[in-house]
Design brief:
mainly alpha; 8 helices; single chain
Length: 224
């Protein structure tokens, strides 16, 4: 590796790391938090079989899972201003990433909710618990423990999907790599460096996922 390229990489690494910490990580956390809240609501509505709301939720899942994330970003950031709705780039990315991932997470949570024995619902009703209390204290804890690996995978996927926010001018990790490459034109080296940073953060999340699964397995009385 020649000195010029080495100098570019050593200079660009802290800049990309800065935007990874300041923008990519907050974007991931906020989007995932929104996705989790929406997914829980959508899954519970379907589990409770609330007729009209259930159909609305199914329509939302159908539309969201059937259209590309990039198209959704463009519609919200570039399309909505045509009808007078203007959203800044960062919150637009949070909303789109969150609602997109929520559609997938809702199906995961719904499946785990339906996997909880119906007998536990009946037992709760027999001892005088209300339906919301049964869901909150009996069904949800079991369902979320089962869903934990899949939800963790969704968070890892979302971290990588934040790179799509570069297309709507969010100055995150990948966008910073593009800006630097525009000055020095070393695409292979710079994009490989960006990929290694993503890999580093995903590896940390994977490690935390395994620790979480082990802890939950221990709590459930099984060895991980």
């Amino acid at each position: 590796m020649d000195e010029r390229l080495w100098g570019i990489l050593t200079d660009s690494f802290p800049k990309m790391m800065e935007y990874a910490v300041k923008v990519t990580i907050p974007l991931t956390v906020l989007s995932f938090a929104l996705a989790l809240v929406v997914a829980l609501g959508v899954a519970l509505i379907q589990y409770a079989r609330v007729k009209v709301l259930r159909q609305i939720c199914r329509f939302y899942i159908w539309i969201t899972r059937g259209t590309p994330l990039l198209v959704q970003l463009y519609i919200v950031f570039y399309g909505l201003p045509k009808v007078g709705i203007i959203i800044d780039a960062f919150p637009a990315a949070v909303v789109v990433l969150g609602l997109n991932e929520a559609a997938y997470m809702a199906e995961t949570i719904r499946g785990t909710l339906e996997g909880v024995s119906k007998g536990q619902l009946e037992a709760g009703l027999c001892v005088g618990m209300t339906w919301p209390k049964i869901i909150w204290h009996v069904v949800l804890p079991q369902a979320m423990r089962t869903a934990f690996p899949a939800l963790s995978n969704s968070m890892i996927a979302m971290l990588k999907e934040t790179s799509m926010a570069a297309t709507i001018t969010v100055m995150e990790l990948f966008r910073q790599a593009q800006v630097i490459n525009g000055r020095v034109y070393e695409p292979l080296a710079l994009y490989l460096e960006a990929a290694l940073i993503y890999l580093m953060f995903c590896t940390i999340l994977t490690f935390l996922q395994h620790r979480g699964e082990k802890r939950l397995g221990s709590y459930g009385g099984t060895k991980a």
